[in-house]
Every structure is written in C-alpha cells, then in structure tokens.
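Hello again, I could really use a second opinion on something today. I've been staring at a protein lately and its backbone has me curious. Can you walk me through what the tokens say about the fold? Take your time with it, there's no hurry, and the full record follows here:
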Amino acid sequence: MTLIEKAKCIRMLAFDVDGVMTDGSITYDENGVEYKTFNAKDGHGLAKMSKNGFVTAIITGRNNGTVDRRATDLRVTEVYQGVKNKLPILEAIMEKYGFNFSQVAYMGDDDPDICI
C-alpha cells in the first residue's frame, strides 16, 4: 500500500500538546499560572480537519486550562488531560468511533507517546 493510499484511510487525528501543538515552552507567571503558546497555522489546519468530518483528539500528560480553551476554539472532538498512559485513552476513543489503528494519525514527541 502506498503512502497516499494509507493517508486516504485516516479518519482521526490525535495529538500531544507540549512540543507538538506548541514549541515546547512552558511559561509561568508570578502566581504559578501556566501559559502555552500555540501556532495559529497549525490551529487553522486542525480546525479545517474537524470541519471536514475528521475526529480530532488531544491526549496530553499535563493539565492546563489553555488546552481546553484552544480545543474549544478549534472544535477538537475529544480532549483528555492529565493522562500518563495514553494508549488506553486512544484505544477507547477508537472504539467509540469504530476506528482501527490504520485510520488514526497520532503525533507525539516524548516518552509518554512511544506506547502509541
């Protein structure tokens, strides 16, 4: 199967956040509030995928209100924060929508993503 044929099977896009949807920086203010900076172009692409019927998901190990806000702005279908073992969450989302691994594209950048 060619790469183009494999890509045509994709129905769900799932992402880690830090280092994938951001540049990996974590900024705190003097009160300990955490901030993240997201790339607008990445967001535009993700929003278009959601609008065009793809299931979109965020699975991240950290908890942060900015992630919820960004996910709402981009119409992300599924959001899971504070997840240390990401594979069971991904499998549960896949089961919910009737997908198999050949229908999922996942992007992560760190040790917690290796299991996927």
Notes: The radius of gyration is 14 Å. The chain has four helices and six strands. The beta strands are 12-15, 27-28, 34-35, 55-59, 78-80, 104-107. The helical segments are 3-8, 40-51, 65-74, 86-97.
